[in-house]
Amino acid sequence: MEHLEQLLEKARNYEKEQVLKIQKDMRPTFHVSAPIGWINDPNGLSEFKNEYHLFFQYHPYSTSWGPMHWGHVKSKDLVKWEILPVALAPDSPYDDAGCFSGSAIDVNGVHILMYTGVSHSCDEDGNTQIEQVQCIASGGGVEYEKWKENPVITAKDIPFNCSKEDFRDPKIWEHNGTYYVVAASRSEDKSGQIVLFQSENLKDWTFRTVLAKCEHRYGKMWECPDFFSLGDKHILVLSPQDMQAKGLEFYNGNHAIYFSGTFDYETCRFKEKIVKSLDYGLDFYAPQTMETADGRRIMIAWMKSWDTNFMPEETNWNGMMTVPRELNISEYVILQNPVKEIENYYKNQVLYEDVSLSGSQQLDGMKGRVLDMTIYIKSGNYKKFVIELAKNDSYCITCTFFPDKGEFTFDRTYSGLNRDVPCSRTMKVQNKAEDVTIRILLDKYSAEIFINNGEQVMSNTFFTPLEANDIVFDVEGILTADINMHEICV
Question: Which residue in 60, 108, 114, 322 could disulfide with 37, CB within 3.0 to 4.6 Å?
Fold first, then answer.
């Protein structure tokens, strides 16, 4: 097996060389995207030495999932990102099959990365055995060294008959001088659960409790947990696999949900109050959060779905992240909105106040593929309001609000796809025709839609040719709205 330095050097040199071959115009403008090859889950979202760091699951050598490395970017403002050298490579006996997802914290000026190491071995009958364990590496923001004590947690540390093959994605935090970790595990009933550990020194970990159990309620295996306080509530975020649809709240496949409730550090008991989808779009998985120095809770997610892996054939990068979002809470419901720093990159405002919309019409100055547009519906008598984006004679994507049904639908059927992949998704919104706010963030190949101050969000990707940049409003009836649009230039 190659030494760590050799594997890192190989990945870093390949990345450095190949990134130069990708034209800037072919990437998203203000979203993190794969430097080269493939990315999935965000990892290690953290603030360190007055900069924001984001790591991610990374296979630089192809646009398909492969042996997982940790890619790395950083930012001073959560909008403009700088590519850093690959941080971790799979080199050790406990992670030779991949450095899977994890998290990061600043401990006294040292950047601590906690991740899942995956190894393969053969039993005496020649069958492949997979084991997932939790490991730590530390460093100063660019170079990281794996600890000699690895692995620091294994499935044997859980006092039940749990899977050693499905035990992953540690999320670490500190509270009152003690370190805590939640991780995803497959329980004795073969469904997912979230387990909680604590430590005083990061090396010796004690199992505390099963924080939550799936019991076949929401999918099968649970992945990528996050656990944090928001206001006076505690939030458990996770990504279920193999979930069946339930009305318009939960969709088939793999996506992200959250439990909102209360938590007691003394007993380590979490009481669920409500459970909801975190995002209602076609492309959203494995969200992770951090708390900033100014007290904001920031979240970012992989803007893709395992079941809809499509990219233009000529593209040599695959995968991007959502815009970082600030989370707030109303009662037990999470509100999500793009980080405020994005406003620093606004250019060329186009504003219409009290504009009357009826039938199909374009408004002067309103077009583009990299923009932030907010539509505030003030009054109206209408049955359907359609916003056509990324449009020309051949292509468009549509956002449609049905006030009578209180439903909002995103559709990418005519975005240029030539594969039979899911194209449409619908969510429930408040059932009224006025005082509705629709904010749309476009960045070349994605549309993130925030309804009513982030009460509900849809994250979606599409790969329509960039020359399709018209915006058309189509109203069945009549409505009055304020429309405010800014280009985003980074």
Answer: 60
